[in-house]
Amino acid sequence: MYEKKVAPIALDHIRIGDPFWKPYMELVRNHVIPYQWEALNDRIENAEPSHCIRNFRIAAGLEEGDFQGYCFQDSDVYKWLEAVAYSLMWHKDPELEKTADETIELIASAQQPDGYLDTYYIIKGLDKRFTNLMDRHELYCLGHMIEAAVAYFKATGKDRFLKVAIRFVDCVCENFGTDPGKIPGYPGHEVAEMALVLLYGVTGDEKHLKLAKYFIDQRGQSPLFFEEEEKKNNNECYWNDSYMKKQYYQAGKPVRMQKKAEGHAVRAVYLYTGMAEVASATGDASLFEACETLWNNIVQRQMYITGAIGSTQYGESFTFDYDLPNDTIYAETCAAIGLIFFARRMFEITGESRYIDVMENTLFNAVISGMSLDGKSFFYVNPLEANPESSLKDYYKRHVKIERQKWFGCACCPPNIARLLSSIGGYAYEANTDEIYMNLFIGGEIEAELGGAKQKLSVETGYPWDGDVAVTIHNDAESEFTLAVRIPGWCEKYSLEVNGEKIAGADAISNGYAKLKRNWKDGDTVVLKMEMPIRLMEANPRVRADAGKVAVTRGPLVYCLEEADNGKLLQNLSLSDAPEFNCHFEKDMANGVVVIDANGHRTSEKSWGEDQLYRVYSDNKKEDVRMTFIPYYSWANRTPGELLVWVRR
Questions:
Q1: With contact defined as beta carbons under 8 Å apart, do 31 and 474 qualify?
Q2: Low-confidence ranges of the chain (pLDDT < 50)
Q3: Please, what sign has the CA dihedral across residues 270, 275, 276, 277?
Q4: How far apart are CA 262 and CA 130, in angstroms?
Q5: Per the confidence metrics, is the pTM higher than 0.85?
Q6: Phi, psi values for residue 621, rounded to 5°
């Protein structure tokens, strides 16, 4: 029942030519991957050093020195290698592959005789390895190593890195478990769970799946392992005095008993993704039900309109239902990417478009906002309201930046964006033997074997600026298969045609997809036309931060006000009761975007005395203004200034 209904199409069978996404992919290939390689080697001027490659050189005995950076620094190069692998799948680059091979050899040269590989403990003392699973991230680094190794194997056919990862997994299998003499522990920062299922898919070795299942089943069991580890090894848990305690790690109770998303947001969605993977691989009904419960809690009570998650800087965490502040928000880019991972697995199991709706919203708004349009600076935090003075002077808002940063000491987000955008084709198109699903409207050519025959689909679209999508079938012989076209949750009116003949949409919709099953012949064309009206969205009244306010959206995009267009004190702007919207394409703004104008008001300051802080209420005079909204993802690419998503009515 919980086996996956579809799987991603291999990236070397997808040629993206989309006017929106292709430039992002080329940006990652030509600029982001080389830039991040320079960063990993500490060659970016005026940026925080990474120390990552140097740590590996020290661990391999090629240099002398002490470990520097965070204990999880190894993971940065693993994510970089994963992005490289995806890029190589759709664009061969011998020089880049040579650099990757050399980096893999460096990694392999640091591996210990029993397979252990973590530069923090190799340099600082192997006698302490596996003594602080709660906070030292060895298994987290292993997870990212596995993901990169599998991707590189699929991209190049080379198994050198895969063997390195398997040796480390073997080491973990030897040391972990509930048998006498083994460590009954699990990762403090999750990701190994989903990575191990990915590895199992390549090796077919049941040991890899069993280890993933063990990590999930053992988590939160009594007595709590992290509490026992604290006592045994004199570790300190920063979160013991917080309301989260061990739920900061999602480890305060067994995963099947967890009903709300709690604790560190990135760890949470990485865990939930692993739970979904294990549930589908083992047919575990109770585990899948836990995934559904946690998913619903996130998207119905703890997710921002942009798809961002993580309400507070304190622990980079979830807080409580409907607590969604816009200016003290955390909304880490990695958390949004993790939510996309979770959404994809839930869709693959259920075939329901509601998961892809969240994926699309998060991708367009909460993820690509995390990288500048030139690919050389990044947001860790993605606010929905920002004020330069607050970010500078308010201690509790200092994490909210109004300019993207060149790099971070904790640099998880930049390579995470790179690996996602490099593999975006696999999220857009998934298939089984008889069905191909168009999840995201991304133009290009897709090859797949469907109905027992090779098929090629050509897709053309101007999405997200317009709602027109055309799909043309190319095959050598007529064959039967199903083309499943997603009808987005935001879309209220659309038309669907096959070879010019209208299809009755209501009759064809299943789980949010228009499923077109027929004998397809060469040249058959499907045209989807979706209306894209401007919509005013309101939040549940329990969301205090958004009371009396609205957000402007069009298609999959959330829009915002920026100081560059609307001046300072954006909080003084309000939309008219019956706003008249006008949208137009600005080709010279932010690489080309649809801009929305609307009539509104600005509260006047003219009647206020210079030294007057309060006064008896009066109907303040308002000035009529024209307000300019831009896509949220594109903010902070011009002059630094204020930002506002939720606007007063």
A1: no
A2: none
A3: positive
A4: 25
A5: yes
A6: -70, 135
> Could you give the 3-state DSSP secondary structure of residue 272?
helix
Rounded-to-integer distance, Cα 335 and Cα 317, Å: 10
For 29-43, the pLDDT digits (tens) are: 999 999 999 999 999
Active site residue 412: yes
With contact defined as beta carbons under 8 Å apart, do 379 and 404 qualify? yes
Distance between CA atoms of residues 507 and 98, nearest Å:
53
Cis peptide bond prior to 631, omega within 30° of 0: no
* 8 Å CB contact between 336 and 308: yes
Q: What share of the chain is helix, strand, coil (3-state, %, to 5)?
A: 40, 20, 40
- List pLDDT tens digits, range 560-586: 999 999 999 999 999 998 899 999 999
Report strand pairing: 479-486 vs 435-438: parallel
Which residues contact residue 567 at a Cβ distance below 8 angstroms, ignoring those fewer than 6 apart? none
The single residue of 52, 171, 334, 412 carrying the catalytic annotation is 412
Are 171 and 115 a contacting pair, CB within 8 Å? yes
pLDDT at res. 45: 87
Active-site residue, selected from the candidate residues 147, 316, 562, 642: 316
Alpha helices in 451-583 (DSSP H): 505-508, 563-566
Instruction: Please report the pLDDT score of residue 556 as a whole number.
Output: 98
Helix (H), strand (E) at residue 429:
strand 429-431
Of 370, 359, 380, 371, the C-alpha closest to 303 is 359
Question: CA 520 to CA 450: how far, in whole Å?
Answer: 11
Contacts with 81 (C-beta within 8 Å, 6 or more apart), sequence order: 100, 103, 104, 148, 151, 152, 161
CA atoms within a 13 Å half-sphere pointing along the CA-CB vector of 620:
18
Q: What is the pLDDT of residue 506?
A: 53
509: exposed, middle or buried (C-beta count within 10 Å: 0-12, 13-18, 19+)?
middle
Total residue length of the chain: 649
- d(C-alpha 417, C-alpha 497), whole Å: 36
The pairing of strands 429-431 and 385-386 is: unpaired
449 annotated active-site: no
- The token pair at 623 is 């000035």
> CA 348, CA 2: separation in Å to the nearest integer?
9
Give the 3-state secondary structure of residue 547.
Answer: coil
The per-residue pLDDT for 621 is 79
Decide: 352 and 512 in contact? Cβ < 8 Å: yes
pLDDT computed for residue 505 by the predictor: 59
**Is residue 111 within 8 Å of 168, Cβ to Cβ?**
yes
